[in-house]
Amino acid sequence: MTETNEMIHEDPLPGHESTLEPKPEWQPRYPGSGRLQGKVAVITGADSGIGRAVAALYAREGADITIVYLLEDDDAAETKRIVEAEGRRAITVRADVGSRKMCEKVAEETLAAFGRIDILVNNAGEQHPDKDIMDISEEQLRRTFQTNIFGMFFMTQAVRPHLSAGAAIINCTSVTMYQGSKELLDYSSTKGAITAFTRSLSENLIEHGIRVNAVAPGPIWTPLNPCGGATPDKLEHFGESTPMGRPGQPNEVAPSFLFLACDDASYMSGQVLHPNGGIIVNG
Q1: Distance between CA atoms of residues 47 and 37, nearest Å
Q2: Where along the chain is composition biased (Basic and acidic residues) (predicted)?
Q3: For residue 247, which of 49, 56, 12 has the smallest C-alpha distance?
């Protein structure tokens, strides 16, 4: 584990997967086929939820993984164990992606451990539900944007000098970007920014042979939901409004991240995939 001397912000997010019941399903559903053999992936928020599922699937497909996480040492150690159980190498880096300095440290540690960076998954994020816009403090607004969109800029800037033609960047946006969310005003706004960032960054990097895409999950069972201020009643009915009538699991989202990272998606850039339980959006 590596940490800079810069302060990591202390709050309940993203929460510990080790304490969550029922446990999210992260396990890959099929044998690997070497689609990421020899690649190195940096995955933010990889200690739990979607990030853990992506790390597990990437490892099964042959990638070594840098697990970037905020505070949850136990969850990060478990993701590292999962990656190593797939026969791949992993390092954990404790870092707040809202800090440019910490993102640079992530890149440095990855290069020291693996010598290269091929894939960046910008997955880390936070949310703070508020029923009234007047309840959103300036501090919360700045913090949500700092993590969710500034962090993607900082991580991309940190790894960009080390990406070669054939590299891939995959950003995590959200169905809330397309549908809106009356209780997640600041969060859904950052997700709109992430989608615009994805499309613009694709235009910026495509001439260098670097593809940039995004995934927009619907309601997925991860620590972010119970630890992000959702009420017990909302959690009880979480995901029931989707056409499939249930929340998704992280291992139902991870294959979208795999597809966009590997050569199967060699003719795709600036696009968004929608594992969201059947919700129709303008993508």
Answers
A1: 22
A2: 1-26
A3: 49
pLDDT, mean over the chain: 90
81 within 8 A of 57, measured Cβ to Cβ:
no
Strand 272-273, strand 211-215: pairing: parallel
Q: What are the residues whose beta carbons fall under 8 Å from the beta carbon of 10, sequence distance 6 or more?
A: 71
The conformation of residue 150, written as its DSSP 8-state character, comes to I
Catalytic residue (choose from 58, 69, 178, 187): 187
Whole-number Å distance between alpha carbons of 17 and 173: 21
The pair of three-digit structure tokens given for residue 39, joined into one six-digit string: 């690649």
CA 274-201-35 angle, 5° bins: 60
Q: How far apart are CA 110 and CA 63, in angstroms?
A: 13
CB atoms within 10 A of CB 75: 27
Q: Which domains does the chain have, with CATH numbers?
A: 36-273 (3.40.50.720)
Least confident of 70-74, 84-88, 116-120, 170-174: 70-74
Please confirm, yes or no, whether 30 is among the known catalytic residues: no
Tens digit of pLDDT for each residue in 53-81?
A: 999 999 999 999 999 999 999 999 999 99
What is the CA angle 258-263-268, rounded to 5?
85
Q: How far apart are CA 254 and CA 58, in angstroms?
A: 9
Q: Is 82 helix (H, G, I), strand (E, B) or coil?
A: helix
Instruction: Tell me which residue of 204, 165, 217 sits closest to 50, measured CA to CA.
Output: 217
Give the DSSP H or E segment for 65: strand 64-69
Question: What is the rounded distance in angstroms from the CA atom of residue 265 to the CA atom of residue 131?
Answer: 39
Q: Is the pLDDT reported for residue 4 higher than 50?
A: no
pLDDT exceeds 90 at position 229:
no
